[in-house]
Amino acid sequence: MRTLWLIGGLLSFTLGLIGAFLPLIPTVPLMLLATFCFSKSSERLHNWLITHPRFGASIQDWNDHGAISPLAKKMATISIAAVFLLSVVVGVKTFVIVIQAVVLSTVLIFIWTRPNS
Questions:
Q1: Residue 58: closest CA among 85, 19, 3, 22
Q2: Do residues 52 and 38 make contact, with C-beta atoms less than 8 angstroms apart?
Q3: In this structure, are residues 51 and 65 in contact, taking their beta carbons and an 8 Å threshold?
Q4: What is the pLDDT of residues 67-99, one digit of tens each?
Q5: Which of 101, 92, 33 is nearest to 62 (CA)?
């Protein structure tokens, strides 16, 4: 079972790392998932990730307080708006746009109702 958790952690970490450069993939939620998977499989990788200079603070803020930094909230909002705008510009079907609007609005409400770190 530890091997499956390790694979899940590595996959989540890799996708989260890609998400740091692509606005379509959420970085921090994937890093949180990787942290959880590593806690079940590798104490060394778990400790490395929660003390990582780039991702560690966000993970600790979430684990300790369920908090998201104001900068992360702003960046998430910009990314979500950019993806939605791209869908509109490309001419995605109306029902897909409506579904995106509902889902992305719900995500933004969730993000902005979390405490600031």
A1: 19
A2: no
A3: no
A4: 998 988 998 899 889 889 999 999 999 999 999
A5: 33
